[in-house]
């Protein structure tokens, strides 16, 4: 056993095929227990929020059921989690969860349990802010020197800083010359925000300058700024580091000094709070995350740096003091106090490996026994080797791999989709144009091995599909088990598509090559062709609800299929459905080597044209909203003038105000 290896104190794997990043991990006393012990808060891009309180019986134990305090699935991906004083009127800690278009603040509380599973934890939404722009990251602190509460600053993907004073929105400012967002941090000593721009330079902006700058309603300079009547946003200081930054961290050791730490792609920088370089270190391996913390030696700084070689390096200033091996590549690293053990290193990988470890030098107690010298019987060894080879060969012939037994979950969910549409449509909008909108019934079955206290079922479908009911809650009498399970199901194509007339002429065509003989389209899409036609159907038409037409052709001589339509965006659904049904068809035939390919050039021009058209529609929509706002202001002004005329005791001519009011209303 190597001395230079992180000692596994507690570890677990989160979910299946979930993704995580540097903002998805946080350590804090989120339930305000007051015992000085941190809880591990983890959010994932799949929308799962988990809170752990590890209690390993012995070092290296995996996660037990009671270690998971809470597990909930939120509707949107979780970009970042932070804990602070985010609710007005109290200095209790609350949990802030950043989604791409929403900021939610929750309170986490626990109640004493009556069963052996211990306390029960739940979260309560205190408030939320719907964001007008797509978020990238956030930071928090006592902006402007406020006391007893924390404010939140969110950076959008287009370089706008949005400041929230707890339950209310304060202001938004665009960073000058911003192209791509970078890491963001707040320095309480200088009351400034520090980020790294796409120009590869560290930039610092004072909070007071941000607060008094001209409001960022638009990206362009306003006329007030050009005339000089509004304050422009200016940077406090900049430093060119010549590379992109992965993360920024601010460390304040006392009221007189603080340091800005920047982790680049190849170097590690330590800056003074005025932007001067204090020291820098060239890294040997590509870094993935870092965490500065106070050193026991006065005047020095310790830094944990994880890299893509699965190593965790400990630096004191620029000197490497320790290097330990991790079982995964960390994307986030934190240090906290867990179960009276201070200085526990918590790491999280991008695929959900969560580990609590410490840097120990426990010696290996294993000693290899002395080997007794004896003469070898080569004939017996040769016979044993042949026997083992025969056993291995027989196993490979029979099944290849030993069967793996799956662990049965406490709660399982399954869905069965009815093959026929409902006789009476349950759609809220029964008609789309001249087409009747069908509906289909999905039967969802919940099975549990243990008694449950409360089960909540949520069903999601992609728009434009809608549900008659998407939430179900079952109140039961059993134990409280925080678990989330899910299953996926496919809906029938007839729900949004009807048989249509094939068309030989189309503006957009897509050809799919396969390695198997062509299949009769009637067997792939039963119900979408007339049974009286020739059984070898090689052309089939589809019509979406609303009128769009798609034609599918199968070659009689080659192993190709062609999908064509007048609109490029209509091709993907039939193409995807064709590939899935071909795979299912050949799996039933016992063929496992079926493959599809596309040999033509990528239709990027059409794809970009759709993006440009969508962008043009968005611009036109904003122009129409501005025009509507102007007409509304004009309409209210005319109403006030008319009301003044009508209230006047001496009658006066309307001067065509009624005509102007009618014309403005029509506009």
UniProtKB/TrEMBL annotation:
<dbReference type="InterPro" id="IPR055362">
    <property type="entry name" value="PTHB1_pf_dom"/>
</dbReference>
<dbReference type="Pfam" id="PF23338">
    <property type="entry name" value="PTHB1_hp"/>
</dbReference>
<keyword id="KW-0175">Coiled coil</keyword>
<feature type="domain" description="PTHB1 platform">
    <location>
        <begin position="492"/>
        <end position="599"/>
    </location>
</feature>
<dbReference type="Pfam" id="PF14728">
    <property type="entry name" value="PTHB1_GAE"/>
</dbReference>
<feature type="domain" description="PTHB1 hairpin">
    <location>
        <begin position="601"/>
        <end position="667"/>
    </location>
</feature>
<dbReference type="InterPro" id="IPR028074">
    <property type="entry name" value="PHTB1_GAE_dom"/>
</dbReference>
<dbReference type="InterPro" id="IPR028073">
    <property type="entry name" value="PHTB1_N_dom"/>
</dbReference>
<dbReference type="GO" id="GO:0060271">
    <property type="term" value="P:cilium assembly"/>
</dbReference>
<dbReference type="Pfam" id="PF14727">
    <property type="entry name" value="PHTB1_N"/>
</dbReference>
<dbReference type="GO" id="GO:0034464">
    <property type="term" value="C:BBSome"/>
</dbReference>
<dbReference type="InterPro" id="IPR026511">
    <property type="entry name" value="PTHB1"/>
</dbReference>
<dbReference type="GO" id="GO:0016020">
    <property type="term" value="C:membrane"/>
</dbReference>
<dbReference type="InterPro" id="IPR055363">
    <property type="entry name" value="PTHB1_hp_dom"/>
</dbReference>
<feature type="domain" description="PTHB1 N-terminal">
    <location>
        <begin position="1"/>
        <end position="363"/>
    </location>
</feature>
<protein>
    <submittedName>
        <fullName>Bardet-Biedl syndrome 9</fullName>
    </submittedName>
</protein>
<dbReference type="Pfam" id="PF23337">
    <property type="entry name" value="PTHB1_pf"/>
</dbReference>
<feature type="domain" description="PTHB1 GAE">
    <location>
        <begin position="437"/>
        <end position="491"/>
    </location>
</feature>
<feature type="coiled-coil region">
    <location>
        <begin position="371"/>
        <end position="398"/>
    </location>
</feature>
